[in-house]
């Protein structure tokens, strides 16, 4: 009987396997992959954050599930993975934003906040007696008329994106972005793209009860969460266009 491939090497976060892997960090990434889908889209006019709030029971109040968070007036975050871990990270991000405002009398830069948060994430991969955070964040915001969108990783790695997704539907959403994303999208087009990605990345029906959307527009730089009626209108538009396209394809095939 051969020994397990990771035998003993996943028992402590500070122990590397012979091939240079930290299994506890990989397990944390797996927790993120099992979470619901969260999406971020950057466009010249601002940032769009959208989340899937999949509920496990009809008895759950969907409004009690938090996946979108306001970090500061000009910064928001979408999370996936362990909800409690995400709340702790968001709280730390809010504290960092306020410390910067008190110290320098100006809002924190989006990239500075993301780096500070990832510095903390990295510390939790390097010290014994702790575990990595089982959550990832998409951090988006506007600073000095520049729109920024970052994705964090449980390892502390940081990547800037034009459009990205985390959670169980990441691969399907990224396929949509690679096909349909354009650098000159308007805010409305970016929201429609985010809704399309969530619709393709999730198995259940896309409705305003299980989808939340927030925008940070470049002109005012303020984080605003869309109302249920606004979300419904965007979902209806996207699904209506999809149905009409499918009908057109079906009629073309029948003619042939």
Automatic annotation (TrEMBL):
GO terms for cellular component: cytoplasm; proteasome core complex, alpha-subunit complex. One of its GO terms (molecular function) is threonine-type endopeptidase activity. Residues 9-31 form the Proteasome alpha-type subunits domain. InterPro entries: Ntn_hydrolases_N (IPR029055), Proteasome_alpha (IPR050115), Proteasome_alpha-type (IPR023332), Proteasome_asu_arc (IPR019982), Proteasome_asu_N (IPR000426), Proteasome_sua/b (IPR001353). GO terms for biological process: proteasomal protein catabolic process; ubiquitin-dependent protein catabolic process. The keyword Cytoplasm applies. It holds the Pfam family Proteasome_A_N. Gene3D superfamilies: Glutamine Phosphoribosylpyrophosphate, subunit 1, domain 1 (3.60.20.10). The formation of the proteasomal ATPase PAN-20S proteasome complex, via the docking of the C-termini of PAN into the intersubunit pockets in the alpha-rings, triggers opening of the gate for substrate entry. Interconversion between the open-gate and close-gate conformations leads to a dynamic regulation of the 20S proteasome proteolysis activity. The 20S proteasome core is composed of 14 alpha and 14 beta subunits that assemble into four stacked heptameric rings, resulting in a barrel-shaped structure. The two inner rings, each composed of seven catalytic beta subunits, are sandwiched by two outer rings, each composed of seven alpha subunits. The catalytic chamber with the active sites is on the inside of the barrel. Has a gated structure, the ends of the cylinder being occluded by the N-termini of the alpha-subunits. Is capped at one or both ends by the proteasome regulatory ATPase, PAN. Belongs to the peptidase T1A family. This is Proteasome subunit alpha. The gene is psmA.
């Amino acid at each position: 009987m051969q020994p397990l491939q990771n035998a003993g090497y996943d028992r402590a976060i500070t122990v590397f396997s012979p091939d240079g892997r930290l299994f506890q960090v990989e397990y944390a990434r797996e927790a993120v992959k099992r979470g619901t889908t969260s999406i971020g889209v950057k466009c010249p006019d601002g940032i769009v954050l959208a989340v899937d709030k999949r509920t496990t029971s009809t008895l759950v109040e969907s409004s009690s599930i938090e996946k979108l968070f306001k970090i500061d007036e000009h910064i928001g975050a979408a999370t996936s993975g362990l909800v409690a871990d995400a709340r702790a990270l968001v709280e730390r991000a809010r504290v960092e934003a306020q410390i910067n405002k008190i110290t320098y009398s100006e809002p924190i830069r989006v990239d500075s906040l993301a780096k500070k948060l990832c510095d903390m994430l990295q510390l939790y991969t390097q010290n014994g007696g702790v575990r990595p955070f089982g959550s990832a964040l998409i951090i988006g915001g506007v600073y000095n008329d520049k729109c920024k969108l970052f994705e964090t990783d449980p390892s502390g790695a940081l990547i800037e994106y034009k459009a990205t997704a985390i959670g169980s539907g990441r691969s399907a959403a990224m396929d949509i972005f690679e096909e349909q994303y354009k650098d000159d999208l308007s805010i409305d087009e970016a929201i429609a793209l985010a809704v399309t990605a969530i619709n393709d990345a999730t198995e259940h029906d896309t409705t305003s009860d299980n989808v939340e959307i927030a925008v940070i527009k470049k002109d005012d730089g303020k984080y605003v969460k869309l109302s249920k009626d606004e979300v419904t209108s965007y979902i209806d538009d996207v699904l209506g266009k999809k149905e009409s396209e499918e009908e057109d394809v079906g009629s073309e095939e029948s003619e042939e």
